[in-house]
Each structure stands twice: as structure tokens, then as C-alpha cells.
Amino acid sequence: MSTDVDGTDKAGRRTAIVAGVLFLVTEVAAIAGAVLYRPLLGGGGAAADAGGRAVLGALCELVLVAAVAGTGVTLFPVVKRWGEALALGYVCARLLEAALILLGIVAVLALTTLRQEAPEPGAAAVDAALVAVHDWTFLLGPNIALGVNTALLALLMYRSRLVPRPIAVLGLIGGPLICTSAVAVMSGLYAQLSVPGSLAALPVFAWELSLAVWLVVKGFRRTRGSD
Questions:
Q1: Taking the CB of residue 207, how many other CB atoms lie within 10 A of it?
Q2: Low-confidence ranges of the chain (pLDDT < 50)
């Protein structure tokens, strides 16, 4: 069987559809999870009743973890021809992102358990620590690790021309931008959930959405070798 990626090849078409669907799942699951458990992280009286929503949000995030890891595993055999080290780096960065998200889920579930139990001395400090753990994993995972793996995959897509280069350019812009924004948040220049933080995340969102739609609708473009 030829090793060329051909948009008419059935196996390549299936791989493109699977990868595209997984990217779409990451977007939906990430948004749903954040919306569901955000009240718990905010504290206050309303947060005490948010346990059920937090569990549903954690389930959405578990779907997110599986989809994030799945994109790396699915795309590695396709893109490694244009740089095996880069492709392996993409998989590793994607798995790191998934691991950090998983750690954040554990923090949210632990916080839910803590708030359902009777108040204990020092509970407020533990509460604050768990919220901080989640916030840091959210910054390091779906920001820095995401920025790194976005840049790596976008570079591979730019080299291979498996998708239109304007889509790849979106990733080449969005990856470094969201990493830079994360550093700015660490430096205290602005909050992660703020207008500047949201604007910095838009190119990555546009990259993943456009890549997903292209892969599902069109598949990989025909190519016969590396640039």
C-alpha cells in the first residue's frame, strides 16, 4: 500500500474524519465542563449547591481528556513523515495537556467532596488551595501545553500541506500567542478569565475549529512528499 496521503484513500479519509470529530469534541467538552463547574470555583453560598453540576462538568472534562489524547494518537502516523521528532513532540505535548486537565478534574472533585462535608478547622485554606490547583492546571494545560502542541501540529501541517496553509498559519499564530498570554497571566498583567486572555485564545479556537471542519468535510489534501 502506498504511503502517500491521498484524500480519496479510504483509510486516510477515515483518519481525517476521526481526527476532525475529536477536535470538535474537545471544543464542546471544554466549554460544557467550564460552564458546569465554574460556580463551584467561585465560592460563596451558591457554590455549595453546585456539587451535581461539578460532577457533570468533571465528566465532560474526562471526555475532553480522551479527545485531547486521541487527536495526538490519531494524527501521529499521518504527520510523522514531515518530521518525526516534531510529530512525537506533538503527541507528548498533547498527552501533557491531557494529564494537566485530569489533575484539574481531581481538584474540582476533591473540592466538591470538601464542601459537602461538615466544616472542619482549616477547611477554608484547603478549599482555597484546591481552587488554586485547578486554576494553575487550567493555565498550564489548556494554555501553555495547548500552545506548544498547537504550534507543533501547525508547523507539520504547514510543511505537509495536508490542509490549506491559511489554516496552518492560524495555528502558527495562535500557539505562541496563547503561550505568551499565559506568561502574562503568571506575571500578573491580567487575569486569565479577562478580555485580553479571551482575545489571546481566539486564534487557537479558530485554528482547532477550522482544522476540524476541514478534516471532516474535505479530509487530507493529496501530497506526495515532504517540502
A1: 25
A2: 1-4, 6-8, 44-48, 225-227
Burial status of residue 188 (CB atoms within 10 A of its CB: 0-12, 13-18, 19 or more): exposed
193 backbone φψ class: left, alpha, beta (φ>0; ψ -120 to 50): beta
List phi, psi (to 5°) of 163: -130, 160
Of residues 106, 123, 227, the one with CA closest to residue 165? 227
| Dihedral, 8, 13, 16, 22 alpha carbons, nearest 10 | 160
Q: Helix or strand or coil: residue 39?
A: helix
**Which amino acid does the sequence have at 7?**
G
The single residue listed with the C-alpha cell 476532525 is 20
pTM of the model: 0.87
- Give the residue from 148, 145, 171 showing the smallest Cα distance to 158: 171
